[in-house]
Write a structure and sequence with these properties.
alpha/beta, Rossmann fold, Coagulation Factor XIII, Chain A, domain 1, 6-stranded mixed beta sheet, 19 strands, elongated
Length: 432
Amino acid sequence: MKPESEIAIEIKHLSKEFHIVKNKETEGNQGQPFYALRDISFTLYKGDVIGIIGSNGSGKTTLLKILSQITKPTSGEAHFYGTVTSILDIGSNFHPDLSGRENVSMQLKLAGAQKSEFDAFYNKIKEFSEVGDFFDQPLKFYSSGMFLRLAFSIAFHLSSDILILDEVLSVGDEGFRLKCQELLKLFTEMGKTILFVSHNRMEILELSNKCIWLEKGEIKRIGSPSMVLGEYFTMHRDNYDGKKIIIDIEANNGDNQNSSLGLIDLSWSEEDAPGNDILSIRSVSVKPSMLNDRIYHNDSISMKFVIHKKKKGINIGPFFFLQDVFYQPVLVGHFLNNTTDQNLSSLIKNETGLIEINCSIPAGFLFPGKYYLLLRFGMEENEWNTESQEAFRFSEKLHFIVHAEPGHTDFIGDMSKGSVRPALDWEIKKHL
């Protein structure tokens, strides 16, 4: 626990209630109560960088508007120990009908800057923001990227103790976005506190040291970014997979691939098999190569697909993608990239009937965690090339779990630091 002198923001039992009126014609109708925030409490310390995540309508923007003193809470309180600058949107603490220069003047006055310093600030802010002649044009003519440039430039030059941002890094070009990220890192090195909302996983992981997950106006989780983001993305992906139905028969086989063991073991009759007039899939399995009931990270992983090839004279090429819980690409398994350096599909080009396809992922390659399997099949009548067509795309609902072996210690950190961690050849010796 850090000392009280290090506290930057202290939020106690913050709530914001709105009333939703469904029938405006009813006299005296106060509407149904709706809590955008309900009993929010947390403490931020100097130098903390807090990323806030949550679904649309979870209360993220409401929280920032209260902390920026744009909106008042229904109950609770927030205490600030230092100066605050907010970058939300045009119309919050910036006026769209005023020029960039006039908005800078307004922000300088609010920050208590001396009027004799204004000209120096104008020049620095204009140069840094790169808005050019638009500096003397109304903000309503600015693009979202131009507004971000100006707002960030103001925030940087005002040197406030606390910076509050709402999705501002999602706009603007890549060059300026990287520039803003470098500034945020500089702010943290200077001991400033940053509170920002983002839907970008990498921004949260790279910039923040804590993450708050808001859900329906309440704090669902607060902790390390990788832990909170892992739970958040897993929940949303599982909810999405539970709702979508690409291949109806998969719903009937769901228990076979969603068990706590984390294996995939699906099969279909010819009548029910997913596919088309080129091929159908009769079975898909992902299991440990050893006779274990689950996949451990030191096991090699055996993947087997059985297809019914229906046409002769066509190359059928299997390949797959693996994603982690953050939707991050982990691995592409392509049949042309194999240890024998062969065009394996040519072996069955003129065959039809049931074809078994096996692929093995080396032991110790994947870090313990949950992985999503996206299975694909290509087709080509002649030679494989970048223009070859896709024969069939299987559902993206499949997943498997790599478990940590008992006693396993991870010296690197969590899954967000990379899912592929093979054993490499290392040598350490005294240099002569």
